[in-house]
Amino acid sequence: MLISLRVLKKYISLPSRVSAEDIKLKLTTSTVEVEKIETQGKQFEHIVVGRVTRIAKHPNADKLKLVLVSFGPGVEQKEVVCGGTNLHEGMLVAFAQVGAMVRLHGQGDLVKLEKATIRGIESDGMICSAGEIGLADMFSRAEGTCMKSVCEELAESAEGEVVDLTNLKLPVGEKLARALGLDDVVFHIDNKSLTNRPDLWSHYGIARELGALYGVRVKSPAVYAKALSLNKNQKLKIVIQDKKACPRYIGAVIANVEVAESPAWLKKELAAVGMKSINNIVDVTNYVLMEIGQPLHAFDISLLRKGASKMPCIMVRKARAGETITLLDEEEKTLTKDMLVITDARDPVALAGIMGGMKSGIHDRTTTIVLEAANFDAMHIRRTSQALNIHTESSIRFEKALHPKLAELGMRRAVFLIKQLLPEAQVVGLYDRNYFKGEDNTIRTTYDFIEKRIGQIIGKKKIDALLTKLGFTIVSHAHGKTLRVRVPWWRATGDISIPEDLVEEVARMYGYDRVMEKQELVNLKKPAYQLAFDMESKIKTLLSMGCGMQEVFNYPWAEEGIAEKLGIVSGSIPHAGRPSRTLRDEWRFGMSPNGRESRYHGLRQWGSIELINPPAGKNRFLQNTLMPNLVKNVESNLRFFGECKLFELSRVYRTGIGIFDGCDVLPAQPKMLAGVVAGDAKQDLFFNTKGIVESIGSLCEGVLVSFAPEDGIGFLDPHTSMRIMANGRDVGYMGAMHDATLRKFDFHNKGVALFELDFEQLVNECSVVSTKKYQQLPKYPAINRDIAICAENDVRWQDMVSRMEHIDPIVAGIEFLSVYDLGNGKKSVAFRVTYRSDTKTLQDSNVVAAEQKIIRALQTHFHVEIR
Amino acid sequence: MDFETLRASAKQEIEHIKNLAELEAWRVKYVGRKAELTLFLRSLAHMPLGERRAFGPKANALRKEFEQLHQKKLSSIGNQSQENYALDMTQPGTKYDIGHLHPVTQVKNELNDAFKFLGFEIYEGPEISSEGYDFDNMNFPDDHPARESMDTYWIKPESVGKSAGAKKGFEKLCLRPHLTGVSVRYMQTHKPPFRFVYPGRVFRNEATDAGHECTFYQYEALIVDKDISLAGGKILVSTILERVFGAQVTTRMRPGFFPFVEPGFEIDMQCLNCSGAGCSICGDGWVEMMPGGLPHPNVLAVGGIDPKQWQGFYINIGLDRITMMKYGIDDIRLLHSGDMRFLRQF
């Protein structure tokens, strides 16, 4: 909303020390946010209106002239060099004095004008073109503000011409800004911060607030003061069908109206707040809207159909389904039956509180008008305006809930202004349909309640005074403790209704910044240890600091294109983890994309959740796995890096029931942890990823991570993919990406390995971290012996380990060393066995005996040869 | 075993050794696993006590002597080779992969630490929530514009399966547009007094640009106690901001309107970029940092808390905003870019 300081000053006189900046700060810190102050004509400083008194040829240039400019009696004339093609004697021009900010030749940045010598002649100032003083620029930038109407015309000048002010008959010597009426200061107020303050949607309302903030008296608007009923010869029939939606309707019939151009002052003040002048009647309605905040509408009475009573008729009712109206903006709208309309005896003539109809509005030959000042229910207006997507100055005010009393003030003010502009005009009918029952708007509270919430002693007298300034009436005190406060009518539309609302009024009037910081935070209660959050931070630190991975954040939706490349179609997304404790139903085993039925719960299918209004068509589905977005991240990073490691910990969404606090029933939204590793050798990537998963496991107290075969996920290479088990429970998958899938992406010939696990399930398996207990260092030395074997390729390390690790009590550890391919389906595996006893120093023979057991076992079960 | 002969030959041989390979052969011969001396030492265990006492120390001393000889020779050969091969110490050291936590995570961790220190519990709620929790419970009027699809992402009811959204009055599901709804879930399941934080991401149906995101991060805190007031909340705000920015920052508190608080306020922080002079980041020297307020009695009541007995204090920190201010990030979309060129900077 735009607020003109000039209009404000009609209602309050602030002390001269109060600058526009002060007002901005005061309003922002106490009431509403002022986004900026626009000082009109600021850039016209040092530019004045001059009259060309003589034009002579420049001795050294054909196209330049020497121009003598006068500034009225008693002011020295100045001679300047000018090339304007439209110069003539007696012309009024915009003259930039030395020091003015101009854009030379209408280009580049603004520069400070200095004395210049042009072709040997000194030029003391400049006659400006529209471009040079930024008129055109200002016009385009200042759409909807004061500058528009004034600058529009002036900006339209031909190449090489200077601004011609002759027709505007401006006073010679006057500052250009003032001469053009561009000397107002306009406050831009953030509409959002006014949401709860319908009383502030006008100049009078802001003036009233400033009056309270500065302790200055506010003048009342000059109004038509006679009774609001004039019913001798009824001229208009008003019928309100829906009294809840329209608690008050005041209609005035004004005759002898001459529709004409508005006077300059009215145009200027409307322009300052971004309103276009139309004609005197419409301008008055708009002026009252922005001055008082009451939307008004004027009909031509001759365009209203007569009803049975042979009188022009105004009716307020719900629209009939399918009924149409052509609005002032010439758009035809089809209405539904919950929309409120103003009709004549037959058809809608206005969309109540939003916009008038085209057919019934006033025009040049209108002589008798019906002026409407009504009150409509906020919810009706908001719904209709949202449904039709029409937002007008009128609807945004009604939406906030206006008080029925405001309609009266608006009507009185509008009639006053019409009579001021058109002394011949005559109010011949005035009807007030008022169904509003003045409710008792008093609030009972205690001083203690207010002070306790603010946290500071303010004092009873002070509280009374602060509230009184805002228009509240202290109705009664009891025992100096409780008080009853009457809410001023303009705040009694829902804004102020409970004691807490009074707390805010007192706090902001007292000043939020004056409230002292108070130490109430001391809390000797020990914060509880929270395993899940501790694990989250530890695992994130491990992955970043320990494993060299980059944490990324992605959007919650999966891009369908990427998902498709991974073979994931919406509704059948392979998922990490078994259905967790957070799932009660609706999970089922599925088929893998290649048709094999999955073992080990390989592919589970949960439905994806879809948005009604997604950000884009390809993002309709919320992600069911973190993988598509991570893979997309890899693809874009491989454009810049030879390798990358990324992880994300986020929620995914799927059908089924999520267990959360609260009484609503929500879909499952488990937190997943996923990572990708991209680089050169596939085998390295796989073991790199496996190492990451194992490290995560080692951080989780009480969790034993193991792996099981996985062949259900289509985008993984079946030979290098596994399920991740935590304490035997399936929590996710890991593996290298299938070559066929790799080829669908632009990975610059790199391989990709990845993992995804259900973080919540993993944490469920963790036991609460207990303080570690020191264990005695081994008393007796250990002996390491390396063994190298030659085995068939399908002999698995884990199987050999299970055979070896419990074969003899002195086997204290088995460490994998290396593997290499021997060809012919055979491989060489080397490992180190550590032998140790807790009771004695081992003899050579003990070690040899244990080693022999190992070798025999490997030979028997795996047919290996010792190398 | 003749210790003296062994010593003499070892000493003589090591004199002539010129390179590491020869030295290694020498080591294997005299102190290796199958060296004469090693085998002797191993066999000591089986000898009678008298012999062990007689030869043990001698053999051990000799072994130590050999090891010293080896060490000495090793370092002298090592020194020689250094003369031949000049080490370029300006070459980089071994490169270790060090990853980075997302900047928002880093700031969140700092906030978590600060709040935990003040006795706050950490809490989380669902990202898909219901209109009941995010609007009705929050005291939003029935026809509040934020409920419109222009602002909130709504979930297609057919897509959630049979059960979700089944609770009467909580049928309409959405991606939560703010965090505050989560606080009621906590209030309904805990007994006051309490203090907790609930960080998380929220979603608004908004066009994105350098300053706007459709997915962003908030960090909210609520204290409910018998006498936590505006004045007490103010010190919480300055304590937290000081912790995050490492220095005292200038703030101002001004009125702000949100349906779920009364009174409500906005806290602005003096722009760190221009120290309040006004710049392209802040405009007029102040950056909106966090809204907050005292919980509206309707919100406390729906949380099962008697608003006559208890009062509270909310603050909602724009986690992205504070992160951007801290690191000077000028485009919010970078936070979701997954771009390592960006992420590796923090």
From TrEMBL, chain A:
Pfam families: B3_4 (PF03483), B5 (PF03484), FDX-ACB (PF03147), tRNA_bind (PF01588), tRNA_synthFbeta (PF17759). It catalyses: tRNA(Phe) + L-phenylalanine + ATP = L-phenylalanyl-tRNA(Phe) + AMP + diphosphate + H(+). PROSITE patterns: B5, FDX_ACB, TRBD. This is Phenylalanine--tRNA ligase beta subunit. The lineage of its organism: Bacteria, Candidatus Brenneribacteriota. Its cofactor is Mg(2+). Binds 2 magnesium ions per tetramer. Coiled coil: none annotated. GO terms for cellular component: phenylalanine-tRNA ligase complex. It is found in: Cytoplasm. GO terms for biological process: phenylalanyl-tRNA aminoacylation. Mg(2+) binds at residues 495, 501, 504-505. Residues 41-164 form the TRNA-binding domain.
